[in-house]
Design goal:
By secondary structure, this protein is an alpha+beta fold. It is built from 18 helices and 23 strands. The strands form five sheets. It has an eight-stranded mixed sheet with strand order 5-4-3-6-2-1-7-8, with helices on one face. Strands 9, 10, 11, 12, 13 and 14 form a six-stranded mixed sheet that branches. The structure holds adenosine-5'-diphosphate and magnesium ion (MG).
Length: about 600
Amino acid sequence: MSQIKLLPEAVAAQIAAGEVVERPASVVKELVENSLDAGAKQIAVTIEEGGKNLMCVQDNGAGIPAAEVELAFRRHATSKLSTAADLEGIASLGFRGEALASIASVSRLTCTTRSRDDAMGVQLRLEGGHRVHRAPSGRPPGTEMRIADLFYNVPARRKFLRTERTERRHINAFLTRYAIAYPEVAFHVRHDDRETLQTPGNGDTREVLLNVYGREVGSGLLEIAAELTARNAIRVQGFVGSTQIHRANRGYITLMINGRWVEDLRITYAIIQAYHTLLPTKRYPIAFVQVEMPPEDLDVNVHPAKTEVRFREADEVFRAVQRAVRATVIAQAPVATPWQPPRRSAPAAPPEQTLRTRLQQLQPARQFTLPRAVKKQPTSPSARPATPDHVPSATEPAPSAVEERQPAQLPPLRVVGQVARMFIVAEGPEGLYLIDQHAAHERVLYERMRSDWATGDVPSQPLLAAQTITLPPDEATRLEAQLPTLSALGIQVEKVKTGAFQVSAIPAPLRNISPQELLADIASSEPERSPVREELEKATILKICKRAAIKGGQVLPLEEMRTLIRDLEETRNPRTCPHGRPTILQISMKELAFQFGRLG
Ligand code: ADP
Ligand code: MG
């Protein structure tokens, strides 16, 4: 007797729905993609309880002809594709004709729509995919899809819905991306009666970026100079963060291909690679990269959710993206903050000078020899190291990786000189290096003090002669409150009388600084507040290092610079100061050659 039966249609539909409708955000995605495909210029999204209770998407697009509404909810019913050949060049976001059928099968759905060609609209209600109501409806052209009680008939799925907050985050992650990618469409998003996103729909991407990222980040994003590949086939556009803006995970990198949000490890890696050596280690850029390419060079029919793609020429896309992003970031690098002297500080080149003129001002610059054949950077995907094995999805920021320690990564450097009494110029195997003397020294001091402190054995160095410092009353009170912390850090201070303190020993790494200045500085700033002694001590170490480090504006003898660079090479995190700012900036031979017009 045969055991094999065809599944009832409703069960088959629910199984298939599982692939399209993973969570509320997938419903929002499919509905909004349909609205965009319908040419809508206004899309309003209303969400209740993270989408569990209600999701409603309204648009002013083409609408569905009354005679075809039922059909739209049938599986494999689509207006966007008719022959197999059409699959070769998909220009719309949808094409599988599955979304509406899937969503309807696992929810209570009301569709109200009017085609531009119809005098009257229609309202259709479906429960679990079955029609329960149909009536004419007078509404302006466009479509409204209301999805209530998602997974009401699939308790197993409903149980696995995450918290409202998580779902809201997923929905917003998707909507903000589409709002940026479609600036000519006005998006209006409400969660539980709170407006969370509103874009003007005037075609101005920058304005959307300001809405989405806030003024500070939004206005600092650099527009990618449109780049076409040799075959004029791949166009890379979008916006990327400068080297001053970075994040602890890859979640801020968005890739749109032909107007579709796509998750692709390799291209994401191309974007990260474009920032190679320009960001502190373990930090990632903010990027919104849009690739336009002939649809026939792209297969989007990989998975029902359509977030994965296959490229006919993956390497070419990889290179186009990497080159466009790199060029954009490099083009602004010369005027980036690492080159701009802090306001308070000593004479330096005026900011409007270009990289070239600044490099020319470096006296020993002729010591750099430019290789005839510039070594090719490992940009091709075949030559690159394996992509990191875990890349968090764009909507799920990974736990911060900043705390992880990196092994020393500085190549051996040869000191060439000092510029602007602030930066050490050095040569290394990869080109020219500029080191911020203050930041570098801060890093060195910080790691020494931290490691001594961690062993619990802080070597305190007695001063030849104890030094006395006198302070006004409130500063004296502040210093007094911090004496135990200072003592734990190897700074021996005693109160000798009201307002007067005597310092008799300081930690070895600080031996070159004036103990009086150090104490005056500590006394003048608010003491750290923390109930945890260790936190107090750590914070005080940071403060002390900042104070004790060599300042900008200080001329350094060659020997001292060499020592500093050697010390920096030995630190565990040589590339940033303890506050996370860069210590070192590299200009590769290739970039130098390029800047001097030696590269074709
Ligand atoms: P697909 O988008 O892959 O074609 P869907 O199941 O998402 O499949 O939608 C089925 C059809 O319903 C679409 O091809 C389109 O003709 C119609 N449709 C769905 N949503 C809208 C909308 N918001 N406006 C106009 N037509 C729509
Ligand atoms: Mg669709």
